[in-house]
Every structure is written in C-alpha cells, then in structure tokens.
Design brief:
The chain is of the alpha+beta class. The chain folds into 4 domains: 256 residues, 3-Layer(aba) Sandwich (Rossmann fold), CATH 3.40.50.12780; 128 residues, GMP Synthetase, Chain A, domain 3 (2-Layer Sandwich); 68 residues, Orthogonal Bundle (Non-ribosomal Peptide Synthetase Peptidyl Carrier Protein, Chain A), CATH 1.10.1200.10; 150 residues, Chloramphenicol acetyltransferase-like domain (Chloramphenicol Acetyltransferase), CATH 3.30.559. The chain has 19 helices and 28 strands. Strands 5, 6, 7, 8, 9, 10, 11, 13, 14 and 15 form a 10-stranded mixed β-sheet that branches. Strands 18, 19, 20, 21 and 22 form a 5-stranded mixed β-sheet that branches. Helix 5 packs across helix 7, helix 12 packs across helix 13 and helix 17 crosses helix 19.
C-alpha cells in the first residue's frame, strides 16, 4: 500500500459514521456501483446496481456466513467481477478477516495459502479443482464455507470436494451481474447428474420464472428462458436505454406496474423438487442440419464418461469459414491431466498461453466413447471430431475461454485402417475424403461415423454419379454406408449405368408448358374471368427520396435476369400451347403515374384498379410494375404478375432482389 494512502487512512476517526455525517445522505435508490460486463456478446456494458439491490444480496450472504469472528477469507477473484463482492464485503460486515494475497500465489504456488488460516472460500469449479488437486489437505479440512459458481460443476469434482472439505457448508449458486451477483443457491452435496446443471431455487426476496417466447410460464420440466425478479434486479445499463428496455421488462406476474424482470437469456427448466436446472445460453444454441443443439447437454454427457475430466463442445465449419458444412467438435481434457492447470499444476498457463493439443489415442478409445454417447444422445448431437487438450483455457474470471480453443480439425472416429482393394473402392474412398474433409478413408469406415450426414450424403451421391457414370441414390448411401459396401453395390452387373441428364432446352424451338402452366392456360381459355383469381401482386408504400430512373433500371434488369418474367403463352394450329420468351427490355419497363392530387381514398381506389387489370396470356406482359408518385418523397409501388410466371413466395424473393438491384443501379 502506498505511504500517502496509509497516512490518510490512519488520520480517520475511529468513531462510527452515521447517516447524519453525510452532506447528502444516501438512499436506497442511489447507485452503489457500476460494474462492466461483456456477458455473451463481447461488448462491455455498465450495470447500474443500486444500494437496495446490494442490501438485498448482502442480507442473504450474511445469513449463510459462519459466525461472526470466525470468518476468514482469501481474495481469489478480480475486483472486476461481481463475485468478488462476497469476498470483499462479507468479512468486513461479519467482523472477520480478508486475506489479500499477491496475484501469483494462487496461480503459481497455491501451497503458500496453507500458511493463511482460512475458513471460507469463494471460487469457480475450475479453480476449485486446481486447489483440490495441489493444496495441503489439512488446509481444505479447515474450511467451513465453500461457495462455487460461474460454470457447471462436474460430478467427479463434486465428490472430490465433499471428501476434501468434510466440515464445510458446500454451496453452488447462479446469478448474472444484472441481478446483483447471486439469485439461486443449493447445497451441492445433493446435486444429481443431469443433462444440465442444478442451480437450486431462488434466494429470499427473489423470484424466478421459466417462460416461452411470449413470456408465458411453461410447465415443470419444459425448457424455457429464465427470468429473474425481486429486490436484486438492478436499474439497467449505464447510458444504454434501448438495451435496458430490451432486457429489463415489465413484470406481468406481480400486478405492480413499476416492478421489472430481467431476461437472462439462459435456458432452464423447473424440476419436480422445485429447483432449477440450467441448460445453457439461448444464444449459444447451435443449429446442426436444421436441428437445434445445446452444447451444454453434450458436455454434461461427455463429462460423465470414464477418462474425461473436462469437456467443451463447439460448432466448427470444416473447410473454412466459407464452408456450409457445420459439425460438432468436442475439446476434451483426459483424466490424469489437471483440467484447470497447465504443466506443474499452475493456472497461469490457462490464462496466458494457448492450451497444448494432445493426441487422444494414448488416452481414450474414441470408438468406445462414441458408442457410449449413442446410449444417451441422438445421432445429430454426437460430435464428429475430437480434440485433446492438456488444459482447458480460462478467462480471468475462471470460466472456459472459447475464443482460446485451438482451431484444429481434430480426430475423426475411424475403424482400423484397411486400404481399398479395388479401383472402385479407391474411387469411393476418395469421394468420402473429399466430401467429409478427411485425409484418409479405409474400406471399413462408415460415411456417417466419419461425420457425414443427410445433406453431405446428397453431395456424395452426386459426386459418385459423375465419376462412375452410374445412377447413385441417397438411399444407397444410407443402406451401404461403408467404402466397401458402397463400392460392392456400384460394381454389381445389371446396374443402371447412367441417369437422365439435365440439359437446357433450346430456344430455337417451341418451349412446352409445365404441368401447372398448362392448367392455368386451360382455365384462362375456358373462362377468361377465372384468371383474376391468379393475380399475384402487392402494393408497397415507399417513404423517402426515390430515384425513379434507378428503379426503372432495376426493374428492367430484374426482367432481363429471369426469362419467365418476359414469357407469354401461344398455341399452335392443333391447339397445343407453348411458351414465347420476349427480348429483355433496356429501360421503360416501369410505368409511372402522377398521384399528387389524390387523397388516401383515391389512392386506394387507384391501386385497386391496377390490381384488377386482367392479364392476357397471349400478348402479355405477365409481370408488371407501376409507380404512383403521391408526393415529393412518398410513392406507392405496385408489383406482381400472373400465377403462370410466379407465386407468392417468388414475389417476396423478387422484391428483395429488386431492392439489391436498385442499390446497384
């Protein structure tokens, strides 16, 4: 401590400070502190915590602390994180002692802590595992309170802590910074292995709700978003009114207009015993082949497997960021290597250096691991690739640092390698390697166990069809997923040697109608009035300055890009219909009208008249655009055509394409 600071503190009076000593006495609505947090977005935001919020939290903390005079705590958390409040304020309020140890002690040589008489510990699971692994057992036995939170608690670690701290109250809790540090808690001796993490029930004066996307409560056991209410809900974000309104919403359950709830963005569900099970972040969900996946569920199953001490699952684009093939990659720390420590049992490696990548062959049987995962997880939730780590990278707050995970492709689970024994097997193996993105595929390897899926099976079938000249159905890949099995099927006599090629129809001869177009052409010839039921048009109000010339150019470009928009239908002498594709317009496709003298009712009437105009399938046009200028910076744009050349979905696509063409014009 600096000498001037020591002198300043020593000059203070030892008498008790009262409210009357303040020139402006603080109230419950005064801000106690502003703490910046990035959360899951990575953008720092200042959380305004009032004195009332802090008082509510401290009332609960005081209730769980050991008796006054016996509380001695070490400072393990940076003051930039709200969990440090337990460490800094609790000893002061209870008349205890706070050990402020040098930063390197915890990271480099935690054995020095054994000289500090300590009764309470506040930390994260990964740091706790580090301490349990390396520190003097007698020091752990002296603890009377262990509070853990900030990350899932591994069942193996739970049992180790229970054995190492037989005399301590062992608590596991949850709470965002926006709700003043801690809002749920449970005795982690009672925690059961589940897909998520049990975080207990709300602490006093706090409420928890699990709701759907419309803020309706969901039944017990149903997953939804966790909302927090009560005295600890903070004021909001400093200088960010929009974000505050988005995350701090009116409480529809209290009946009081001034009460708010905090939307945590966390997935959870109520259990039958009135405790909450945390299941991860809404924004951390991964979409794999159209199905939503919560990495936390996979990680929980992985941590239950023998030989794994820590696990993190992420989605990676195999083949680079431009690849459309997203697959699950599991980062694993094998048993025998301290999950929260680098070489020589130090946490320092985790926060300063990239973790060491290990070859998992010497630690885990990945084939057996995959079979075990299949017992608990559906196929789309089983990781396709596995990466071994010597340690799990941590942030300064003791949580897993996802950004520090090494960008390596990992190990694919493969059968014992057998080289292809025939040219056709070699060709199939090469197709497996190209589609999945692996270095080598053996004849006994399964396409789906290597990381293939239904979408990549389509690409595999198309690739094999091009290279062999034989028709390959996606079903064939599913029925014969190995290199040898698929090669044997392709090598059979009597196979269909080729599929029907897709060729562009020549424009030097009449182009036949599609089946749907024939139906619409027939109805039009039968009764011309029937065509009015097949108008696909829309009217849009445009406000702001508009470049009419650029819009006309964009409309012409749109029609030039799509032949069907400049198509009409004729019939030959025998009455057989065919298509005629007109030349593309350069400009002048857009019809412009002056509607500046029209009121709202007149404009609606004019738009109705435009939409009611009949289409002539023989002369066209079957796609049209009209702009009504209603003011200096207001327009009505009518766009659409006959169902013979577009449908409702296509009109939306064409509108978006037209917007892009307008910006380029």
């Amino acid at each position: 401590m600096m000498e001037p600071t020591v002198k300043a503190i020593s000059s203070f009076s030892a008498e008790r400070v009262t409210v009357s000593d303040f020139p402006h006495p603080p109230t419950q609505r005064n801000s106690a502190y502003v703490l910046y947090t990035s959360g899951s977005t990575g953008t720092p935001k200042g959380v305004l915590v009032d004195k009332a919020n802090l008082d509510g939290f401290l009332s609960w903390v005081m209730a769980i602390a050991p008796d006054a005079g016996h509380l001695q705590m070490i400072m393990t958390t940076s003051s930039g994180f709200d969990s440090s409040l337990r460490e800094m304020l609790l000893p002061i309020l209870r008349g205890g002692r706070l050990w402020c140890v040098p930063e390197g002690v915890l990271n480099k040589d935690p054995q020095d802590l054994r000289y500090l008489e300590t009764t309470a510990l506040n930390t994260t699971p990964l740091v706790l595992e580090h301490l349990v692994s390396v520190i003097d057992p007698d020091w752990l036995k002296s603890l009377r309170l262990v509070y853990c939170g900030g990350a899932p608690l591994d069942p193996v670690l739970k049992n180790r802590v229970i054995a190492a701290c037989p005399h301590a109250d062992l608590l596991f809790g949850y709470g965002p910074t926006e709700t003043t540090c801690n809002v749920t808690c449970t005795d982690f001796r009672s925690l059961e292995p589940v897909n998520g993490t049990v975080i207990g029930g709300p602490i006093p004066d706090t409420q928890a709700y699990i709701v759907d996307a419309y803020v309706n409560p969901v039944p017990v056991g149903v997953v939804g978003e966790l909302l927090i209410g009560g005295i600890q809900v903070s004021r909001g974000y400093l200088g960010r009114a929009g974000l505050t309104a988005e995350k701090f919403i009116a409480d529809p359950f209290s009946g009081e207009y001034s009460v708010r709830l905090y939307r945590t963005g966390d997935l959870a569900r109520w259990r039958a015993d009135a405790t909450l099970e945390f299941l991860g972040r809404i924004d951390s969900q991964i979409k794999i082949r159209g199905m939503r996946v919560e990495p936390g569920e996979i990680e929980a199953v992985l941590r239950e497997q023998n030989g794994i001490s820590a696990a993190v699952v992420v989605a990676r684009r195999i083949g680079g960021v431009d690849s459309a093939d997203v697959t699950l990659v599991a980062y694993l720390v094998p048993d025998g290597i301290a999950a929260a420590a680098g070489p020589s049992g130090s946490l320092e490696n985790n926060t300063c250096f990239a973790p060491e990548v290990l070859d998992l062959d010497g630690y885990l049987d990945l084939g057996h691991l995959r079979l075990e995962l299949k017992k608990s997880l559906p196929d789309h939730m089983i990781p396709s690739r596995f990466v071994g780590l010597g340690n799990m990278p941590l942030t300064a707050s003791g949580k897993v640092d996802l950004k520090a995970l090494p960008l390596v492709e990992g190990t694919v689970v493969q059968a014992t390698y057998e080289a292809p024994v025939s040219p056709i097997e070699g060709l199939v193996a090469e197709a497996f390697e190209a589609v999945i993105g692996i270095e080598r595929a053996g004849r006994r390897d399964s396409f789906f166990e290597l990381g293939g899926h239904s979408l990549s099976a389509v690409r595999l079938a198309a690739r094999l069809e091009r290279s062999t000249g034989m028709f390959v159905a996606v079903r064939d890949v599913f029925e014969r997923p190995t290199v040898a099995g698929l090669a044997e099927y392709l090598d059979l006599d009597g196979r269909v040697t080729s599929s029907v090629p897709l060729l562009a129809y020549g424009r030097d001869r009449p182009v036949p109608l599609s089946f749907s177009q024939e139906q619409l052409w027939f109805l039009d010839r039968l009764d011309g009035r029937a065509g009015r039921a097949y108008h696909i048009e829309n009217a849009l109000r445009i406000e702001g300055l508009l470049n009419v010339k650029a819009l006309d150019t964009a409309c012409a470009c749109l029609v030039r890009r799509h032949e069907v928009l400049r198509t009409v239908f004729r019939s030959d002498a025998a009455g057989v219909p065919y298509q005629i594709i007109h030349e593309a317009p350069e400009i002048g496709f857009l019809a412009v009208e002056d509607g500046s003298g029209l009121d709202d009712q007149d404009i609606k009437a004019r738009v109705s008249d435009l939409l009611a105009r009949p289409f002539n399938l023989e002369t066209g046009p079957l796609f049209r655009a009209t702009l009504i200028k209603t003011g200096a910076a207001t327009h009505v744009f009518v766009l659409g055509g006959h169902h013979a050349v577009l449908d409702g979905w296509s009109l939306g696509v064409l509108t978006r394409e037209l917007s892009a063409l307008y910006l380029e014009a």
